[in-house]
Amino acid sequence: MSFPSQEPLLSLEHVGLAFHQGGLALRPRPPFWVLKDISFDLYRGETLGVIGRNAAGKSTLLRVLAGIIRHDRGRFINRAQSISLLTLQTGFVPYLTGRQNAVLSGILLGLRRAEVEARMEAIIDFSELGAFIDQPLSAYSSGMRARLGFAVAYQVQPDILLIDETLGVGDAEFKEKSAQAMHERIRSDKTIVLVSHVPGTIRELCDRAVWIEEGVTRAVGDVDEVTQAYHEEVSRRQQRHEHAIRAL
Amino acid sequence: MISSFFSTNRPIDHQVIDLILYKTYADLRAEAAKTYINYLWWVIDPILSMLVFYLVFGLLFQRGGEGFVAFLLSGLVIWNWYRQSVAHAGGSILNGKGLMNQVHVPKLVFPTVTLLTDLTKFALVLVLLLVFLWISGYPVNASYLALPVLLVVQLLLIAGLAFCLAGLVPFVPDLRFLVDHLLHLQFFCSGIFYSVKDLPAQYQGWFYLNPMAGLIEDYRGVLLHGTWPHWGRLGLIALGSTVLLAVAISFVHGRDREYPRAIR
């Protein structure tokens, strides 16, 4: 799927971002460029997969897109009203009840207080917590917390949803339910950026893909072509690695 | 004006106001839930700290005498509000690092929330202080009309310092250690357990360079003696605090997206 005639919701042109070493030092260390040259567009209604190995800069890129940190160079044009990173259990406090935590978390994720309260029934339903919702969070199992976290995050519907990797959500049974809900949302006409290092996930769920390597976009476009190129690079590296081990 | 600083596109961001109010409520609830006697601590804690001072200065040093308890209590209540607010708010953005790396939170929210939680607790203690004073023979008088002005000026002063520190500490964490000592020094310079008349005459002018010294004296004038505040001095404190607050807000707001990177 491509949208050549449409104006992109997000545009990144040669975006770069560096981390600086803080504190007084005799010799200031040079900045470390996590993102060096990232360029791609995101169109309304598509699901864009971002693929790359560990430490390629995927998480940093998501934080730039979510507006948590600002890039240092290049251009980042955002035409969307709201973008948010799917985060679970954001702002959860053990001493408050599940209901209070749900409200706090929902507001942090961008909802009005009244909106969260109006959706409380849906949150309780989805999380399968029942009367436990009024117990303090410290009495919850980790699975229950995860369910509540997901149920709240699922109520937030930004213009652009950013998703990082597979979601670790509690017990196996709920994992299936949450994954199914997530897949449904991804397949709908929502605009989504999905980050993963598994080509299969990207191929299954995305319309287009971006491959990022060491902070640089290596390829943008058709899912199959991009994941294929990524796959080849990974196996090339693996071969080189094996050669190096054999040479020892 | 201030609300426009919180928002990037809309004049008043109701969502941010929801966040500030609910987070304040949640923080107060969570703090109370940590202990057995919950909210009672907000009252017992200041009473215990006042007892310590009364034991040391009233009994041990024999500084007591007529009206010493009321004198000491009013100074301590006012001072504690200042110290706690400044100390708590100073680290508030730094302490919000977990949250600010997950979602975008306007960084001014963090010190605003701690200021509000401390203000709530202070309000409770202030009511108790007033009741105590009325019982002990210091009745409500005409100069009480100046009390709201004093409270607002002190709030401005607290907010100016708190936002300043909150904005600087993430970049220079070392400041926190310095602030503890400076607050300690300021405590001894604010005339909480002595009055300015006890100082050598040549230092009395310097004494009022510390805004808390002037404020505490004005509060005592209103609460204990029925005299009006020193308006000129109060105006200067208000003006200075407002300038400081405006500078601090624009500093923090301008670096809104730098904090998550600075604090890791």
TrEMBL record, chain A:
Pfam families: ABC_tran. It comes from the Bacteria. One of its GO terms (molecular function) is ABC-type transporter activity. The keyword S-adenosyl-L-methionine does not apply. Signal peptide: none annotated. Gene3D superfamilies: P-loop containing nucleotide triphosphate hydrolases. Residues 10-239 form the ABC transporter domain. Keywords: ATP-binding, Nucleotide-binding, Transport. The keyword tRNA processing does not apply. GO terms for cellular component: membrane. Belongs to the ABC transporter superfamily. This is ABC transporter ATP-binding protein.
